[in-house]
Amino acid sequence: MVIRRFENKDAEKVSSLIIHTVRISNIEDYSAELMEELIKHQQAENVLERAGWTHFYVAQDGNEIIGCGAIGPYWGKEDESSLFTIFVLPEYQGKGIGTKIIETLEKDEYFLRSKRIEIPSSITAVNFYRKFGYNYKNGIAEIDEEQIYRLEKFR
């Protein structure tokens, strides 16, 4: 398994990975209607758009993309960043791939220049991110109106 920077030709595979993962892993914590609404915004063109303003990475096993993750500026700030679009195919979850993706993102220049890093976390992933030292933003351990937790880490 290798982690490398996203290339535009990866967009369809990354979109499929996200959609597949949402339908299997995230459906346990959210309604099918909400997940189908999310999927509408995870098409290849959406992935390409996000890759245009973030440093986007993919985890690859042979020819298969098995995970992804991105880091970018938090609302254009120089000293704050956000992690985005972190997904691992369900059949590869629990094998350390998500950990490798987080480690890669935390070595990226957007992370290294930041004093604060935020993650908009699904219910499904909140405990995973907390293992890496991300805590509830402002101590609020409840999902917001977008049905996500806001987590942050200070450096």
Question: Which structural traits does this protein have?
Answer:
7 strands; 7-stranded mixed β-sheet; Aminopeptidase; globular; alpha+beta; 155 residues
Notes on the structure:
The chain has helices spanning 11-24, 32-39, 44-53, 97-105, 109-112, 126-130, and strands spanning 2-5, 55-61, 64-73, 80-88, 116-121, 135-136, 149-154. With 155 residues, it is α+β, with helices and mostly antiparallel strands. It has a single domain, classed as Gcn5-related N-acetyltransferase (GNAT) (Aminopeptidase, 3-Layer(aba) Sandwich), CATH 3.40.630. The protein has a 7-stranded mixed β-sheet with strand order 1-2-3-4-5-7-6, sandwiched between helices. The radius of gyration is 15 Å and the shape is globular. The two termini are 29 Å apart.
Number of strands: 7
- CATH fold name: Aminopeptidase
Oligomer: single chain
Q: Please give the order of strands in the largest beta sheet.
A: 1-2-3-4-5-7-6
Please compute the radius of gyration using only Cα atoms. 15 Å
The major pleated sheet works out as:
7 strands, mixed
The helix content, as a percent range, equals 25-40%
The gross shape turns out to be globular
Ranges where pLDDT stays below 50 over 5 or more residues in a row are: none
The number of helical elements comes to 6
Order of helices and strands: EHHHEEEHHEHEE
Within CATH, the superfamily carries the name: Gcn5-related N-acetyltransferase (GNAT)
Terminal CA distance reads: 29 Å
As a percent range, the share of strand residues is: 25-35%
